[in-house]
Structures are given as structure tokens and as C-alpha cells.
Amino acid sequence: MLLLNLRQNGILDDRIINAIASFSREKFLPKNLKGFSGEDLDFKIFSDIIAPKTSDLAKMIFLGLSANNNTKNVLEIGTGSGLQTALLSKIYNRVYTIEINEEAYTFSSEILKNISHRISYKLGDGKLGWLEASPFDAIYIDSEVDNDLKYLYPNLDKNNGVIIAVKRYNEKQFYTTYLPYEKKIEVKSNYEVNRSKLI
Fold first, then answer.
1. Is residue 148 over pLDDT 80?
2. What is the separation, in whole angstroms, between the first and last Cα of the chain?
């Protein structure tokens, strides 16, 4: 049902659909939430850590691929449960992910080490990116950002690197595409979400 709904809502990229079909969300949830894995809902899995619903992850990745179809190198800031990391590993050749919350890092790294050898993860503050692994085709941040993005620009591919993040417009939040090397273009999507601020 989820995959059908995604297609009906314009998520037609087979790479995303196939990636979602490759994993059970149950694997990426704590024991007390595994019984709800079939529900397309946001779950609070740890203090200050939300596991976004799968449809939101699909929309976010769709925006990234629509803005830049290159899939060599990707950075995720905020590993969370690890589900988006796993999805990205089915699409991008190399995935780097940073998590600042130690509890979430321990949880997700135990899962991801058995998912793909193409995933590199570390505990730390992702606001400056991962320069030694750059350049990245895309950077995904499933949190609300203010003016933190300028510090990430040096991590991007200088020709067509993109950042997908959450930005507040008045009282609502939307996934937003940032194209810093095209006159710093910022494109608000129609995908409304509810996220905490990037810490």
C-alpha cells in the first residue's frame, strides 16, 4: 500500500521504490515499536530523536535525485534509526552519515554494519559536514535548519551538489532544496513536515 501511495503521489523513481521494498522498517525500530512498523508514522525512538515515516524519507530522497541525478557520494546529517541511511545505500555508491546523539548512534551503527560495506558512520556534530570524504552529490538533513548551511557548502560537488533540508516558512516547515552553486537558489517543495531543529 505504501509503495502504491508513493507512486500515486508522484514518487516515480524506481530506485527509491526498489530501495524501500528492500527493507522492513521493523529492523530499524526499538523493540517496543516493532509492532507498529507497518504504520507510515513518525516515531519518537530516543530522547530528541524521531524516526520519520517512510513516505517522508522517500519524498526527501526524490527531491535530491530530481535536483542532481549523480549518485556517487552522499552525506546524511542525523543517522537516527538508520533507515534513510540504508535506503541511500541502495541508490548511492557511497554513503556517509553522522549522528550527534550517542544512543541513536549505538542503535543505528549496530544495524548498519550488517547492511552494506558502502556505509561509513561516525558519532559527532554534522554541522561542518565530513570534508575528508567530500565532495558530495547531495547532503540530506531531516531537521529544521537556519543559517547553518553555509558551513556545509565546501562539502558539495562544485558543479551540481545539492542540499535537502527542512526550512520554516511562517509557521510551517517544508522540505527545501538548496542549490548553492546556482546563484544560491532555494526551492521550497510542497512536502510539509514537522521536525525539530538541527542541534
1. no
2. 34
CA dihedral (62, 67, 72, 77) positive or negative: negative
Distance, CA of 76 to CA of 164 (rounded, Å): 10
- Total residue count of the chain as it appears in this document: 199
Q: Which residues contact 136 (CB under 8 A, 6 or more apart)?
A: 73, 74, 75, 96, 129, 155, 156, 157, 161
* CATH superfamily for domain 2-193: Vaccinia Virus protein VP39 (3.40.50.150)
Dig out the grid coordinates for 14 from the structure. 524506481
What is the largest distance, in Å, between two alpha-carbon atoms of the chain? Answer: 47
Give the model's pLDDT for residue 54. Answer: 95
Number of H helices, E strands in the chain: 5, 9
Q: Is residue 199's pLDDT more than 70? A: no
